[in-house]
Amino acid sequence: MSNFTMPPTGFGPGSQPLESEDEKLDYMPLPQDMRTYAPHLPDVEVAPDKFGPALRLLKDVAAACRIAADDGRETQFDLSGLDQANLALIAETLGEGEVSAKVWGVPALAIQESVFAGVWRVTGAGVDRIDVASVPACVTADPFVPRRAGQGSRTPMADGVQNAPPLLVELNDKSAAFTGEADLHVINLTLLPHTEPDLLWLDAALGEGSVTVLSRGYGNCRISATALPHVWRVHFFNSMDTLILDTFEVTKAPEVMVAAPEDLSDSGMRVLSVLEAIT
Predict the structure, then answer these.
(1) Exposed site from 43, 102, 160, 249, fewest CB < 10 Å?
(2) Confidence of residue 217 (pLDDT cuts 50, 70, 90)
(3) Domain range for 196
(4) Is residue 61, in this structure, part of any structural domain at all?
(5) Under a CB-based contact definition with an 8 Å cutoff, are residues 160 and 198 in contact?
(6) In contact, 144 and 182? CB cutoff 8 Å
(7) DSSP conformation class of 39
(8) Residue environment code for 22-37, b if the CB has 16+ CB neighbours within 10 A, otherwise e
(9) 65 near 119, Cβ under 8 Å?
(10) Does one domain contain both 220 and 204?
(11) Is the pLDDT of residue 22 over 60?
(12) What's the CATH number where 165 sits?
């Protein structure tokens, strides 16, 4: 075989000696810590005569999951009448899922999804209950009540503001025309040219609503209601906490925080499986 058809030598990766600082390859860290469902049995000694109220309530929660999956109806269960032992069993059974929310109002509410999608623990001053729903009604009732009022088009124009005013016009238009049947409208800031002053101007123009939601899954998603009706700000972060998607959504509730009917149906079966295992 002639040299013309032989592959050249002395070229390409591995053909040259490594310098001391290159002896070890440094790879970008891989994504980690993806949260998945794992069966969990309560670490509480169960006695039917002592924990009857909690066991009956959990059975009713399972039935409410099926109802919510079928027709979307929300069911609430008041926990204020239970003693500490029964509350401990319920808390241990439900655990903590990947979605949590805060609602600033009177009273202020903290909402934590359980490990069963669509089963939420709602607490606040004088409030302790379980809501079974795709998303609790307290989150979507008045999320746009201003904690910090938006200045709208009257927001002072700082140096560097370029594309934000047209985006505000679009959001105002979609907000005013929104109906319960309207299609989701998304403005993807990640794909649009904008400056840092643009983002600051939009934040001042839209203000801040009374609901904040954090969804922890493969990375994090932070959802904040603005003071403009039906407009939400949604930030997606990867597992290394780097912002990868920045959007405005005009909708009743962003889909990332809503439990699907299939999830609710599955939650009902999982709750019953746990009850069978501990009784």
Answers:
(1) 43
(2) confident
(3) 152-257
(4) yes
(5) yes
(6) no
(7) -
(8) eeeeeeeeeeeeeeee
(9) yes
(10) yes
(11) no
(12) 3.30.1370.140
Q: Supply the pTM of this predicted model.
A: 0.80
Cβ proximity of 119 and 113 under 8 Å: yes
Q: What is the pLDDT of residue 51?
A: 87
The span from the CA of 77 to the CA of 128, in Å, is 9
Q: How far is CA 37 from the centre of its chain?
A: 16
How would residue 142 be classed by pLDDT, with cut points 50, 70 and 90? very high
The H helix count followed by the E strand count for the chain is 6, 10
Number of structural domains the chain divides into: 2
- Are 130 and 175 found together in one domain? no
In a domain, 209, yes or no: yes
Percent of the chain scoring above 90 in pLDDT: 72
Neighbours of 71 (CB within 10 A): 8
pLDDT at 258: 92
Query: Cα separation of 276 and 18, whole Å?
Result: 62
pLDDT tens digits, one per residue of 162-203: 999 999 999 999 999 998 787 899 999 999 999 999 999 999
